[in-house]
Structures are given as C-alpha cells and as structure tokens.
Design goal:
alpha+beta
C-alpha cells in the first residue's frame, strides 16, 4: 500500500487551501472553489476565511461576489450546516444533500405542528399551502425579511410550543421553519444581511429573481459522486470516516459514490485513507507560511480526525460542542490561537514554540487580519477556552 506522510498532507493543505503566500488568490470565488464550500455558521467566518487566503482583497470584494455578481450563494447543506458555495455548485449540493434535508425538516416541523394540535386536517397539505403563500408573497415583494413576510402571510404567525410543560418551553412562530424548508428546497435564497458582514439577519429573495438563469438539475447519485470528487481533491488523502462526517451522509451513500470514482487506498501513518487515482503525484513543499484562520474555518472543519495538524491543542481551541475557535497555523499545523478584543486589537497566544522566522510570518498575518477587520468588531457566536482567556 502506498504511504502518504503527514508532511505531504500538510503540503497539500498549504497549496490547495491557498494558505501559502504563493497559493493565495485575488478572487473570492476561486478561494471558495478551492475549499469546495466556505463554512458560514458564523457570518464573519466567510469573510475572514477569504481574507486569510486572499491577495489585496477586502470585505467589499466578498460582498460583491455574494450580492452583486451572485457568484457565491449562502445555503444550508451538509450536516444541516450553513455554507457559502460557488453558485455553479448549487445543482450538486441541491441534489446530493439539500433535497433530503428539506424532506427531513418538513417532516420534523410537521410533527411539532401535529403535536400542538393547532391545525385541522392534513398537516402536509397545510404546510404546503403556507409554503406556497410565503413564496408568492416573496415574489410580490422581491426581497423581504421573515418579519415582513409574517405580516403578509397570517399562518406564518402560528405559534408552536415544541417542549410543552418543560422549564425551557417557549412558543415560537413557524416563520423560520417555513423559510428553512423553502431555502433547503432551493425555492428561496438568503440575500443581503441587515447590517455589516458580521450580521446573521438576512433578507430573503425568490430564486427566480436572484438566479434568473436557473440551473440544470442532477440526480442524487451523480451529484454525490461529484461532491465526493471535489472533497477528495481538496481534503484528500483522508479516511472514509472523515468523508462520511463532512457530508453527513450514511456510510452506504458514501461508499456508493466512491464506487463510481477511481480511488486508491493509501496508508496515512497507520490509518487507511483514500485518494483520487489521478492525484498521486506529490505536491511540492511550499515556502514557509503562517495564517490566522477564523472560528469554524473550512480547513480545520474539513476532517473529523485532526491529530495530524491539531496535535494536543484541542482543549484550548474547541468548545464543548466540537466547534473550533480562531487558530494560528504554521506550515500545515496549528501552533496557537487568536481573538479580537472589544477595542479591535488582535491578540494571540502560541501553544508551542516557533522559530524567529515563523514568528515574523505570524506577526505579518496579525497585521493583515487587523487591517481586514478595520472598524468592525466581530462578536463570536461561541466561545472557546483560549478565546475567553485572550479577551478577559
């Protein structure tokens, strides 16, 4: 069995994830393609991930790609997680993941509505009617927030208590549920936020007006094959368990997609991994590099097994839900963490020793990150132990 060592995996990360200076790009869409998708649970992550991989880019360049050129699209996809994807990947994500997600979410929400006993008749029919009314209202408005749509569609204001009798019980309207399902089905899309690039309050737009060119649908099987191919190029070689975790599919679905690709099993320091058969040529080791990656950046979130780049630093950099905070990278491994203080200062802490030249590279990335933030203060969506210490 062919062996691929950690040094080669790190070289691929440096080049294919556009983290080495010679691999960086001046195109936000090109950067997103390199990562397959950009993690977007925290809106700031998208911008900071691009900034870390960019050449002379600004947040305005990312906004242009998202909202003017519409070459990037924000959508709920793998593992019911928010991502920003190149628009041309929409058919792949829709067929491989989003259609099944929409079905699952509609079934879950329908069960809550049925348990609440607020609807007479068939729940599925009732939900379909509300979805159609909401889509029609959005077509009329052109763009709207959930609050605005709930004024147009009375049934969106239906209150449901998902945990009756519990101390944490809190009735909620079904507005968000309906918008999530319509978004997962690809009938509506998330448009501009109501605020800066760190805001998670979005307007919605019908896909007919946001992407009038539409797209050609794929079968679920061929879409899964293409998504696996792209992931293997960006994140391979890797164990099949990492691929299963990243996609959120069943092991059977993963294996079926892999069966349609020409892959080679390799040894990853004692762990079996997979790589595309036409991707066996070693990637040259790039120049020394450093990067400040944001919380939930797509590089550390690309694998479930992270020891080969994370080392012993998980307790400091991850929260209890498995979310990674801001991390400092040097030559393909994590060496520390960072945070932005309320006054805007970017502060860091190294978790292992680095040489003088690496420290200079890290200092340069601190300056780049500080410039990228400008006057913006990004409030973290979650806190990690090191982040708490740095901002105390």
């Amino acid at each position: 069995m062919l062996s691929i060592d950690t040094a080669q995996r790190r070289a691929r990360v440096a080049t294919r994830h556009r983290l080495a200076p010679s691999a960086r790009s001046n195109d936000p869409v090109d950067i997103a393609r390199s990562m397959v998708v950009l993690h977007a649970t925290d809106p700031a992550t998208v911008y900071l991930s691009v900034g870390a991989r960019g050449i002379d880019l600004t947040p305005a360049d990312v906004e242009k790609a998202l909202y003017d050129d519409r070459a990037l699209l924000r959508m709920l996809a793998m593992r019911r997680t928010m991502f920003v994807a190149p628009t041309e990947l929409l058919p792949v994500l829709q067929a491989s993941t989003c259609d099944a997600l929409a079905h699952k979410q509609r079934r879950t929400y329908g069960r809550f509505i049925e348990q609440a006993g607020v609807v007479d008749g068939d729940i599925s029919t009732w939900l379909a009617e509300v979805e159609a009314e909401t889509h029609a209202a959005l077509l009329t408005r052109g763009a709207a927030t959930g609050v605005q749509l709930s004024k147009d569609v009375a049934r969106l204001r239906t209150q449901i208590d998902t945990a009756p009798g519990k101390s944490y019980s809190k009735p909620t309207s079904i507005t968000t549920w309906v918008l999530v399902v319509l978004g997962a089905e690809g009938r509506i899309v998330r448009g501009r936020p109501n605020g800066s690039w760190t805001s998670s309050q979005y307007t919605w737009a019908p896909v007919e007006t946001w992407l009038p060119q539409g797209f050609s649908p794929l079968s679920a099987a061929e879409a899964r094959v293409e998504l696996v191919r792209q992931w293997l190029y960006a994140f391979g070689p890797a164990p099949i368990t990492d691929l299963k975790w990243w996609t959120g599919w069943t092991l059977g679905e993963v294996r079926k997609a892999l069966a349609e690709l020409d892959t080679v099993e390799v040894d990853l320091d004692g762990t079996p991994g997979l790589i595309l058969a036409d991707d066996l040529t070693p990637v040259p080791t790039p120049e020394p590099w450093a990067a400040l990656l944001p919380a939930l950046d797509p590089t550390p979130m690309g694998w479930q097994s992270r020891d080969w780049f994370l080392g012993p630093h998980a307790p400091a950099l991850f929260d209890t839900n498995g979310n990674i905070g801001p991390s400092i990278w040097a030559d393909g491994r994590i060496v520390g963490g960072w945070a932005q203080r309320p006054d805007g200062e970017v502060v860091t802490r190294l978790l292992e020793d680095v040489d003088t030249d690496t420290q200079k590279l890290i200092d340069a990335e601190i300056d780049r990150t500080t410039t990228w933030f400008g006057d913006i203060r990004a409030i973290p969506r979650f806190r990690t132990p090191l982040q708490r210490e740095l901002t105390a």
